[in-house]
Amino acid sequence: MENAPLPSKPHYAILDGLRGVAAVLVVIFHLFEAHATSHLDQIINHGYLAVDFFFLLSGFVIGYAYDERWQKMSIGEFFKRRLVRLQPMVVMGMIVGAVFFYFQASKLFPMIAEVPVWKMLLVMLVGFTLLPLPPSLDIRGWQEMHPLDGPGWSLFFEYVANILYALFVRKFSNTALAVLVFLSACFLIHLTVTGPNGDVIGGWSLTPEQLHVGFARVLYPFFAGLLLCRTVKLTRVNNAFLYCSLLILAVFAMPRIGGADRLWLNGLYESFSIIFVFPLIVFLGASGAVKSNFSARVCKFFGDISYPIYITHYPLIYTYTAWVQDNKIPIREAFPVALLVLASSVALAYACLKLYDEPVRRWLQKKLWPAKVYQKA
Question: Which of 39, 211, 218, 262 could form a disulfide with 258 if both were Cys (CB 3.0 to 4.6 A apart)?
Fold first, then answer.
């Protein structure tokens, strides 16, 4: 029975769409980041909070999809399902990173020109597993745990949260889960308010400081999303996709608060956004309904490309950033190229989805859960 496909539950179409909206804003954030002198003057200043929003969405969806299924599903079965869903695009992200790697050689990334091909390929192969690389194996100069495809760090912590959920947290009562969420919120606030930067930026390196940031970023939103799924009573919200999309844009576009002298004020803003605003957005999105074919198509498109664009866009951003920094190109002159990179990121994501991700996942599902097993169950 545990090898049979579990009957699928209806998707929250609006939440799928909101994930895509946040993913596209991440690409725009990274394009503007190439022209910023610091995070104080960054346009779409808080775009990096998309990662924390993704974690909260993930916790909510995991609870919705799996909390009621554990009597018919083993831990190994859960892990297989998560690997089938996430790992194919992890592999593709690393391949895209390898293809673009040597085109990124620049003053910004001086190490690249000296990296032998065998070492780059070794990093790619390790990246396929999502095992984090130590700084000693860095091939870019930013000490990333996945230097071919930086966003891989958040997938690493996504897996960590999934493991914690499957082994322990799924068994927690709502009270115990609420205690964990409260303590995780305190952990997050401590990071943002007392940290040296007044924000949650980080988590991508295998160092004690960066691991601290990574765990602070994943623990609250993921398990708050789970708690929200378990306890919330949904209502009816009209135009939820529009309102929630505007709210996400407002959170991300908020300029840096407090300046360089009062970093803790920005930390409070980010803590408030993650702890209160993001759960509100998920609640409103889950409470909404898609009422027209056009809205359904928009939500589906954004939802479909959300994960592929997030995990494949950054090699293009590395290349764009190196070009901008080497040539000192202002945003007004680079704008057409930035639009091209954005369009290319969407096109690449959609191509990867249709030509690779969906076919590979279908093949894996047939291998792991053949129809005859399902019929016997």
Answer: 262
